[in-house]
Amino acid sequence: QVQLVESGGGLVQAGGSLRLSCAASGSIFSINVMGWSRQAPGKQRELVAHNNSGGSTNYADSVQGRFTSSRGNATNTVYLQMSSLKPEDTAVYYCYADVGSYNGDHVRMKDYWGQGTQVTVSS
After folding, report:
1. Residue 81, pLDDT above cutoff 90
2. What is the pLDDT of residues 40-60, one digit of tens each?
3. DSSP string, 24-46
């Protein structure tokens, strides 16, 4: 089994910054991609940042220039640095990872999600 655990959420005033962390652990042979999505009350979950296996990162238009996502030196981690936060950034933030686990015969890829961390931006 694989677990993803996020941390770093909280309450911040508009214009402030927060840094989220996500660490994957368990039966991990490889991680292809990692990223972040969020879900605000009454809204659908939306992609925030997607860290491609080649090293590039794609961002939602709404966070471009304000958020930066990066993989840690320990490749099982991903971070989301959020700056110039706005009230509309208030949401539960989830990290995800495309993880390969070796079952003794071949590597099986599967998507995993963290439990989410609340980010609240006050105006």
Report:
1. yes
2. 999 999 999 999 888 899 999
3. EEES-SEEEEEEEEEE-TTS--E
Q: What kind and span of H or E run contains 113?
A: strand 107-113
Q: Cβ(92)–Cβ(118) under 8 Å?
A: yes
Q: Is 74 in a helix, a strand, or coil?
A: coil
Query: CA–CA distance from 102 to each of 31, 83, 97, 99, 112 (Å)?
Result: 12, 38, 16, 10, 15
- Indicate whether 74 pLDDT > 80: no
Q: Which residue shows structure tokens 């930066």?
A: 68
Q: Which pairs count as long-range contacts for 74-77, CB under 8 Å and 24+ apart, including other chains? A: 74/23, 75/31, 76/23, 76/24, 76/25, 76/28, 76/31, 77/21, 77/22, 77/23, 77/24
Would you give the DSSP letter of residue 67?
E
The Cα–Cα gap between 47 and 29 comes to 25
Q: Is 121 within 8 Å of 13 (Cβ atoms)? A: yes
